[in-house]
Structure formats: structure tokens, C-alpha cells
Amino acid sequence: MQYFDIIGGSRLKGSVEISGSKNAALPIIAASILCDGETILRNVPDLADVRQMLTLLLRLGVKSHRDADGALHLRVEDEMNVHAEYELVSKMRASVCVMGPLLAKRRRAQVSMPGGCAIGDRPIDLHILGLQTLGADFELANGDVLLKAKKLKAAEIFLGGPFGSSVTATANVMMAATLAEGRTIIASAACEPEVTDLANFLIACGARITGHGTPEITVEGVDRLKGTEHRVIADRIEAGTFMMAAAITNGDLDLVGARMDHMRAVVDRLRRVGIIVERGEKGITVSSSRRLEPVTITTQPYPGFPTDLQAQAMALLCLADGNSIITEKIYPDRFLHVGELNRMGAQLHKEGPTVIISGVKRLVGAPVMASDLRASAALILAGLIAKGTTRVQRAYHIDRGYESIEEKLQKVGANIRRQNES
Description:
This protein is of the alpha/beta class. It contains 14 helices and 28 strands. Strand 5 and strand 6 form a beta hairpin. Helix 1 packs parallel to helix 2, helix 8 runs parallel beside helix 12 and helix 10 packs parallel to helix 12.
């Protein structure tokens, strides 16, 4: 098993190329199930989760390869298998994104229930409800969701959940509706840029979709979709992580490819902390003053502050001059990083879905354990500024969502090394 050793204290300076969005790429890859002919995707990051999705699609009859330029080519060659097995789905929850495409194109879908995870229970009831509303018959057998329909029929579907709109449920229902008969209206749809990117891909394939990027999406069903070429948007979560890396190290970074229009809530909070964030010629530039102001952050569905940057923001605010408050409204249990940051000298106090952060003068390096993808990023950020050496165990978590993160950090001055356990 691999881990990271980080010697803190280096000021980050230079340019970082922001990779394509994992959360956009995964449903778009799943959507290739819908398409006749070849699909070519550019700017797809080489991540553990992407490789896992491609393995699943291979089981479902979709062959793929990357060319010399890094473009990902996909083509459906066998439509017989409709079973996404637990062995694969349990390793990556985004695997449930194959449910809608399988049902729409092959009339059947058998997808293992994904279960819980380190950031809390994330049920798929909205996915099932939406697909049932489109006319699918549903049953649960041996831990698998079984869906079938001779022909999907358009409907009006409400996808609001207890913690806001569901991104993956919106993606699943929108993909299924592209081949449904009639006009489907998805109310309380997720507005995230990743949903918009999926819609733009589907439109390029021949789908008729309007309203993407708003809470109401309209889909006019068509008879077939064809493969196309598409470039995946930049990863706003990776961009936000590097913005906070610049801030926590009093650094100065150019984030090539990052999009300000996808990150307005993050930019607003960072500017209130005292970080200088500006549009650059090729993306976003970030620089920091020595004093960090405390702020209040509440995670919300887009365009609010993203839950996927909550842990990283907490690491940054550990060094703010005063008391900050972070409230998690999406996944109230997503706080396993709190105890690990406290091991490094942070003063964090959790009360339900809220953490009170009392700023300290410095953090101290320590061995810490990553519990999930974004917690890993938070611990690496803390290690960048901590006195001494920080060892972040379970490097495999970070590999799910950050492409060559240690190489990117080394390039701009960080003292970080990936190590193998002896």
C-alpha cells in the first residue's frame, strides 16, 4: 500500500494544468452505452475511478482505448449483458450511472445496490423513482436493482431529495429520457456543470435537451443516438483544491484551464478569507496574503459551495485568525477528516453537521489516515504547511480523483513523495 510523505513549509509558485472533470467524465462514459458508432472523448483524466468505469463498460460490451494523443475511444460491440455486478459497483458508486443508459437502450438493467460509504449513506431511491416514472418495472433481488421496460414513456418527474437535487439521479433520468417516447420534464434537476456537460454531450449525439443548467430540464425523446466527439470540462474540484493549496502556503499559482464561472461560491469564500483570485489568460490566478480571515461556509447544491471542497476548506481555515464555522448540508456525516486534522494540532469541534474551527498559529506534521477522496486532499493540504513531516496513509483514495497530484505539487515547489510500504 502506498502513502505520501510531505515536509511542510514550502511556498507554492508556478503553473498547474487542471485535468478534465472526473464527475463529468464518468456519466459521459456511461452514456456511450446509448450510442451507435464510435464515441471519442478528450480531456478524460487518467484516474482509478475512470479505469474502473471502463472495466465495467467492457463487461457490458463497450470496448475502449486511448490513442497517442490521450483521447478515449469507445464503441458498443455487444449489447447482451445488462448486469453491473457488485464486484465492480462496490468499488465506485458512480457505476450506478449505467442504470439509465442500459434501461433505455437494452430495455433491461440489473445493477448492484452500491451500499454505504465513508462519507455516509447515499441511497439511490431517486434514481429508481425517476426510472419507474418513465415506465420501468422495478424489483430488488439478491442485492441487485432489476429494471425492465418494453418502451420508456415520457413523464414529469420531481427529483428533489432531503439534501437537495441529486446529480447522479438527474444524469440517470436524463440519459434514459433521451430514448423515451415523448417529452420528459425533470423538475428540481441538479444544476451542476457536470450535468450540463453531460447534456451537451448527449445533444451532440442527437438528443433533444433544453434547460440544462437550470432546475427544470426538458428532454424530447428521439429514436437513436450516434457517437460523437466531445471535450470534457475542467475539474472544478481539482481547481478548488489547488486554489486552497496556494492559499494555505501563501503561494502564487496559475491554474490553467480552470473556469471562474463554475466556481463563484468558492471564489467568494476565498476572497473573504483574504485570497486574491483573478481571471488569468489561460484560467485562474491565485495568490495569498499572510493573514487568513475566518469565514462561515455552508455546503449546498450548485451554485452553492460544493461538498467536495468542504474538507479542503477546513484544512485552510485551521490557520485563519479567529473562529470559522462549516456546516455540511449535503452529507452530514462527511467529517472523518476532523479527527485526523486535530492530530496535527488543529482545534476543531464537531456538533452534528457543523464544525467550529478555532484558528491556530501552526499545524504539526503527524502520521494520519485518509478516509475518503476529499479527506485525502485536505490532509495533503495540511501537510504542505505543517511543521515537520506528515505521512498520509492510503494514497489510493487520492488516486480516485486527482491525476498525478504529487507530480503537480512537486512542479510548483511542494516537498511531497509517494512511497511504498516495505
